[in-house]
Prior knowledge:
Blueprint: H1 2-22, H2 24-27, H3 59-95, H4 97-111, H5 115-126, H6 130-156, H7 160-167, H8 172-208, H9 220-227, H10 236-266
Amino acid sequence: MKNFRSLAPYVTAAGLIIFVAIFADFLTPFDPYVQDLEGALSPPNSQNLLGTDRYGRDVLSRVIVGSQTTLCASLILLATISIVGSLIGAICGYKGGKLDTILMRLSDVFLAFPQMVFAIAAAGALGGGLLNAAAALAIIGWPKYARIARGLVLSIRSMPWLDAAKMSGSSSTAILFVHVLPNIAGTIFVTAALDLGTIIMELAGLSFLGLGAMPPTAEWGAMMSNGRSMLQTAPWVILAPGTAIFITVATFNLLGDKLRDYLSTQR
Length: 267
């Protein structure tokens, strides 16, 4: 119970961020896409708490809606690479043979490249856009989970309870989904929780470089890119989404660390 209480503040903070992302459309004080050129680059005031951008759009409203874009895209991407990668790794570890050799050598090829450099090249080749940026990160992201899952499966493949499942007549598919995957799910989940902050940073980074979300989409990385030329004249335009990224990444990284510590004490 004591360990869970130490985890609760981080779960609450992460839950609050997710709540804002889910209900972003109802929480924005102004329409984040409506332009008001007469009020462009207004500093923070009682009406626009975080000021306005070069087109007169309310920065706070765009940061709130940007949480939906950034977080939803990151969560979908994370779910995809963790599930697909874990399934590939579990199958390779359990079955072995030529399939294991081919897929693991393929994963070695992807892991040989610096992840962000490869993602920039892939996103540029695909033509930019949030979907293409996510696809580029998915291409380079699954091998990590495949390697982790394969190693975990190899460590339990010779366990007596797994032999008992085989002797009971269970099919390979049933053994994989009923016995193997549930036993490695905890480690995969903690790894995914620790990776969420990194994925948010990578998606925002690609958008900052013009390879992710395209204008006028409200996305934190794209908002920072649009405001970088005004860092000295209107710093709130870039500081607001930058602070949102910092708080979100720090929250999920701390949650991942605490979750790992909590689960390690439960074993």
